[in-house]
């Protein structure tokens, strides 16, 4: 719950408004500029602007997840550890969306995002299955050669 306070110079009173919107906090709180207004927190009320900001944040995090999953395919040092890390990151992303953005997104956007997350989880599960098959084949071949 946020409040907007407006004080008129001519009058000795202040007006309070209850404002519901998307809150943004500044990342760098140590920046002090001379002859400038320092902003620590901003509340956005315009729904189209909220949608754009949320979509930008979700898209950037989604790209990071895709790069992490692609890293599983590229590296061969510890694929099981990388898969677990990717699954943990997907779950963390899902929880973050639920906690932060579900109040500001409409049903259609949520369904689309859930489909994308299920695709990522399915891709990781498929990679896990393929790796387990390869391990089983290698073990079978080594046992057969004895």
* Rg: 24 Å
CA-to-CA gap between the ends?
Answer: 71 Å
Order of helices and strands: EEEEHHH
Number of strands: 4
State the strand order across the main sheet.
1-2
Strand content: 5-15%
Quote the average pLDDT: 78
Query: What structural category arises from helix and sheet content?
Result: alpha+beta
Specify the biggest β-sheet. 2 strands, antiparallel
| Form type | elongated
Q: Fraction of residues in helices?
A: 55-70%
Number of helices: 3
The low-confidence runs, each spanning 5 or more residues with pLDDT under 50, are none
Explain how this protein is built.
The protein has a two-stranded antiparallel ribbon with strand order 1-2. Helix 1 (47-74) packs antiparallel against helix 2 and helix 1 (47-74) packs parallel to helix 3. The relative contact order is 0.09. The chain is α+β, with helices and mostly antiparallel strands. The chain is elongated. It is built from three helices and four strands; from the N terminus they run ββββααα.
Short synopsis of the structure:
This protein has 146 residues and is α+β, with helices and mostly antiparallel strands. It has helices at 47-74, 79-101, 107-145, and strands at 2-7, 14-19, 22-25, 41-44. The strands form 2 sheets. A two-stranded antiparallel sheet has the order 1-2.
